[in-house]
């Protein structure tokens, strides 16, 4: 009887969690969304602006020192059960130099992993998020080797918000790891890289569940998109069709270079009004229209927003047509679409950040986009964290 009460008390204790590369708090929001009984005992991020946002929303400022300076003794003192990590993705992106573990931005992540066996209380669980491409890097190889020799069993995923009904194409790599004797509910998937929701749904036949957009033929991708909500459901400004042609004027405050960069005087914008600051100037449409990804309120998919959104127009995220022409094809003039950028709140919505998430007033528009571009999808991470923490003791 006494032992039963003691066990209940232990189970009632919140998991102690360390949040590395905490950014604007995507991991913490995902824990909350997942309903995990957890306490973030410390967060770590070197970005001062990101920490301003984190502190504004959670009332706690992350540790801002260099993560590489942390020792095993430092980490052991937290007595954390789980480490959540979203290390820099630049060493693995297609646009980057792809130096992988040779990139200085990968050093701190590898350093943290190397500390695990030397801490007084190694974590029971690890969660790692990064871009697609990480899974083929030498950093990934080293991570798997370190976790293997420190008695962890892993399940890996490549998943996209599209698989969770969110019209946002942002496939990402995830590693879930548990230290033995802890096990996953579906051990049949141990040490596998999956593109499906099978384990999260309790389905041991992953081939019959919703697969990721990356590996599916067009017919299956179309079926995947059918289950997504329209972009309109995520918009902050839904009645924008009354924007007049006069809003789409070119001025000397906007200019482009050879990469389609928008240099706009945010203090003396070429438009007035809340929505008008997101209007795409005609000079950009005329020069870069063929390279733009254009979506509509009834679209079921938009491209991934990067940290350079609103600054560059090529390959940084979709633009919204606020006036929908009769024919959505190249024969209609892009000027007729009345294009605008998604607002930071709308990008936050597509990342599934909660309604009460806010930026401090001093954070500029460009900084907001940059921080969101480095964030993660809560719609994807929350069910993965729920699965990771389930059944652990």
Based on Cα principal axes, name the global outline.
globular
The chain-level structural class is alpha/beta
Nearest-integer average pLDDT: 83
State which percent range the strand residues make up: 5-15%
Please name the CATH topology of the largest domain: Rossmann fold
Architecture per CATH nomenclature, i.e. the level-2 architecture of the largest domain: 3-Layer(aba) Sandwich
Number of domains: 2
The secondary-structure element order is: HEHEHHEHEHEEEEHEEHEEEEHHH
Low-confidence stretches: 240-272
**E-strand count:** 14
State the helical fraction: 25-40%
What does this structure look like?
- By secondary structure, the protein is α/β, with parallel strands linked by helices.
- It has two domains: 15-204 and 376-389, Rossmann fold; 231-237 and 272-374, DNA Methylase, subunit A, domain 2 (DNA Methylase, Chain A, domain 2, Alpha-Beta Complex).
- It has eleven helices and 14 strands.
- The protein has helices at residues 2-12, 26-34, 48-58, 72-76, 104-115, 138-149, 218-226, 282-288, 344-350, 365-373, 378-389; strands spanning 15-20, 38-44, 82-85, 125-131, 152-159, 168-169, 172-179, 193-194, 254-255, 263-264, 294-295, 302-303, 319-321, 339-341.
- The protein has a seven-stranded mixed sheet, with helices on both faces.
- Strand 1, helix 2 and strand 2 form a beta-alpha-beta unit.
- Helix 2 (26-34) packs across helix 11 and helix 5 (104-115) packs parallel to helix 6 (138-149).
- Residues 240-272 have low confidence and may be disordered.
- Keywords: Methyltransferase, S-adenosyl-L-methionine, Transferase.
């Amino acid at each position: 009887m006494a032992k039963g009460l003691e066990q209940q008390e232990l189970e009632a204790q919140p998991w102690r969690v360390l949040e590395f590369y905490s950014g604007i708090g995507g991991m913490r929001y995902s824990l909350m969304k997942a309903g995990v009984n957890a306490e973030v005992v410390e967060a770590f991020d070197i970005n001062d602006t990101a920490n301003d946002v984190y502190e504004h929303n959670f009332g706690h400022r992350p540790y801002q020192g260099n993560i590489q300076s942390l020792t095993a003794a430092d980490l052991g003192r937290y007595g954390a059960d789980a480490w959540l990590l979203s290390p820099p993705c630049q060493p693995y992106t297609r646009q980057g130099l792809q130096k992988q573990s040779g990139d200085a931005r990968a050093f701190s992540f590898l350093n943290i992993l190397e500390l695990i066996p030397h801490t007084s209380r190694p974590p029971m669980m690890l969660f790692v998020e990064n871009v697609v491409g990480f899974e083929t890097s030498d950093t990934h190889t080293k991570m798997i080797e370190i976790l293997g020799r420190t008695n962890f069993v892993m399940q890996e995923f490549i998943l996209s918000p599209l698989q969770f009904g969110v019209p946002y194409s942002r496939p990402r790599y995830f590693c879930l790891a548990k230290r033995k004797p802890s096990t996953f509910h579906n051990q049949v998937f141990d040490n596998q890289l999956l593109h499906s929701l099978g384990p999260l749904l309790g389905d041991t036949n992953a081939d019959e569940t919703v697969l990721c957009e990356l590996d599916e033929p067009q017919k299956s991708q179309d079926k995947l998109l059918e289950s997504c909500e329209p972009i309109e459901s995520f918009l902050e400004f839904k009645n924008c069709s009354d924007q007049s042609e006069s809003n789409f004027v070119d001025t000397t405050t906007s200019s482009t270079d050879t990469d389609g960069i928008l240099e706009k005087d945010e203090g003396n914008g070429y438009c007035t009004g809340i929505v008008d600051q997101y209007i795409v100037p005609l000079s950009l449409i005329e020069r870069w229209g063929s390279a733009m990804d254009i979506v509509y309120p009834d679209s079921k998919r938009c491209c991934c927003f990067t940290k350079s959104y609103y600054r560059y127009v090529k390959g940084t995220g979709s633009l919204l047509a606020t006036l929908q022409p009769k024919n959505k094809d190249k024969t209609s003039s892009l000027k007729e679409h009345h294009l605008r950028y998604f607002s930071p709140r709308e990008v936050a919505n597509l990342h599934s950040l909660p309604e009460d998430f806010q930026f401090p007033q001093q954070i500029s528009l460009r900084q907001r986009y940059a921080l969101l571009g480095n964030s993660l999808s809560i719609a994807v991470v929350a069910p993965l964290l729920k699965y990771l923490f389930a059944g652990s003791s």
